[in-house]
Amino acid sequence: MKLGLWLILACYCFATLSIAHASRVELVVVHSQNKLLVKQDDLTLRTFRVALGSGGRQHKQMEGDRRTPLGTYRIMQVRPSAQWHTFLQMNYPNMDDARIGLRNGLITREQYREILQAHVSGTLPPQNTPLGGAIGIHGIGEETEERLNIHDIANWTQGCIAMRNHEVKELLMYISEGVNITIVE
Question: Residues 77, 89: contact at Cβ < 8 Å?
Fold first, then answer.
């Protein structure tokens, strides 16, 4: 009887720790080092080398600038991708992006309000404004020798964060939709 009670208690504690463990995981991308870190509190659980936007290290300003945004975002959706193997969609643009876009005349007040409403309701912000959209973490698709070589030496994306296909699968062992991703210089 004591063993049975201990087993139930152990399972409950393990489940509780697993839930707490998962809720504290976050992603940090260090742009200047081309690294994606899986962190829990102050502990780095895993580090991946990534390729970023080919438009330079400045913060993403608008659609087509080929830059990776800087700031804090959330993974909104994980889905298979014919082009990229797997795509983890971020909630870009965030409210900082929207404020800058409004101030610089890139988006209208109505577009700003639509982005605000999406963030308040926890949904994906509009992806078709002049700020751009479809920013996330993805694989490299068909892993040809040429693609692997380019991935290893260059920032080649249109603003996303790219990893090798098996690394995206490994990343999904640590995270799920809703996890925060902070991209720093």
Answer: yes
Please tell us whether the domain made up of 25-184 is placed in CATH 2.40.440.10. Answer: yes
Pairing status of strand 25-30 against strand 35-40: antiparallel
Sign of the Cα torsion 98, 78, 68, 63 reads: negative
Q: In the chain, where are the structural domains located?
A: 25-184
Which parts of the chain have pLDDT scores under 70?
A: 1-23
pTM of the model: 0.85
Q: Which of 137, 108, 138, 113 is nearest to 125 (CA)?
A: 113
What is the per-residue pLDDT across 31-73, written as a single tens digit (0 to 9) for each? 999 999 999 998 999 999 999 999 998 999 999 999 999 999 9
CA 152 to chain centre: 20
Contact assessment for residue 115 and residue 126, using Cβ atoms and an 8 Å cutoff: yes
